[in-house]
Amino acid sequence: MRNNNKNKIFAILAIISLFFPFTSKATFNPNYLISDAELTNYVSMEMGDIQGFLEKGYLADYKTTDIDGHTRYAADIIWRAAQRNGINPQVILVMLQKEQSLVTDDNPSQDQLDWALGYGVCDNCSHNNPDIQRWKGFAKQVNSTTLQINEGYLADLAENGETVMGFAPGVACTIDDTLVVPANNATAALYTYTPHLEGNENFAVIWQAWFGLNYPTGTLLQDNESGGVWLIKYGERRPITSRAALLSRFNEDMIIAVAPSVLEAYPKGTAISLPNYSLLHAEDGAIYLLVDDSIRHIASMEAFRTIGFSTDDLVEVTTSELAAYEMGETIDVDTVYPQGALIQNVDGGVYYVEDGIKHAIYSKEILTARFGNKTIVPAKVDELWSYDTGEPVKFVDGTLVGITGSPDIFLISEGERRPIVSEAIFLGFGFKWENVIWTNEKSVNTHPLGEDLESINFDENLQEASTN
User: Fold this and answer.
1) Do 258 and 222 touch, CB atoms closer than 8 A?
2) pLDDT greater than 80 at residue 319
3) d(CA 303, CA 290)
4) Tally of CB atoms within 10 A around 329
5) Residue-range domain boundaries for the chain
6) CATH topology for 395-468?
7) What is the pLDDT of residues 59-97, one digit of tens each?
């Protein structure tokens, strides 16, 4: 039904890159654009939300005749079409931008408004063609597009297993000399509307810029279709491929379920497949201790036995598997607590000791959150005084914390405490109130204050662009 002019697409992509800079690298997966649930989530925005979204462009004050003959604002027309035809208003906004730049354009032509979504217009069709005049007009464009997607393409997929153009989940097709295999109905429907690769990349870029969330380091995300769990770290998504690896490193209560399209916005990093502190037995016979993302060579079997390791715990690994880790410091017979230990002083204070360095623990909340049921060992006489003092123990990245008696809540990320400035942002990220750890001020403030945690915000992106 709808083909895009490629020159127009490249121009729109240039506009998007200026107005909506990414804080993490976005990747385009041509096989997956958005989830089925996202396409049909017609209650994602109230009318006021749509109006607020349009405030920086011409459509904020634009009024025209709706399909029922009543004069309405653009936001009202969009909201009514979404409710009437069961399509996400966010999808409509993205399509208005990708087709005619109408969301950000502050002075569009009447032609842009009349053919807002390009409905009924093919690559070589003139807007003056008498055969397409019945679809002319902003409201008709919005209504016809959303009706076509739901009662046309999605209905065809439900009844026939494919759209009118033959697009279907799992069925390979060639688009602009690229092999594409739509992963779901939403992707098949969007390719039917715009059978060009660039146009759908445009859609995906805008979608992620406007309605994606920039999850910070330490966030655990779960694909709500496949069930896979990923760690967001430094702008990458790292798959956690075993439950043992998950439980040894993270709190599974902190997992947030998201659509696959959210995960696709992040480049894929190295997998997390082994439990922390695993003993790795290499092909050449060397033994390593896995500590987070590094491996530490155990210099000798004497050191191995002195520390208390057992050969029963060795995990066979290949040379290529070892290459995924950084090389840490060697462990020898003089290394003290390479796996870390909780040592309790005579005054009741508990320290975490690793490699002969002691780290203070400022609260039982940090103790529990970091170490769970790890055994606490009483210190030997003057033992703790013999160790150098390091930085105090912090909460792990991804932890929600608050100071008892204060309403302020922070997310720990990259060692900093990032204020969560509103309930809307808290809930928008999928956080849960029961996961907030309330503790003393000293435990929270040991983390340097970072930037406020904010979702990608349309208003702020436009303001930033205007000052560049």
Assistant:
1) yes
2) yes
3) 16
4) 12
5) 6-211, 279-327, 341-389, 395-468
6) TTHA1013/TTHA0281-like (3.30.2390)
7) 999 999 999 999 999 999 999 999 999 999 999 999 999
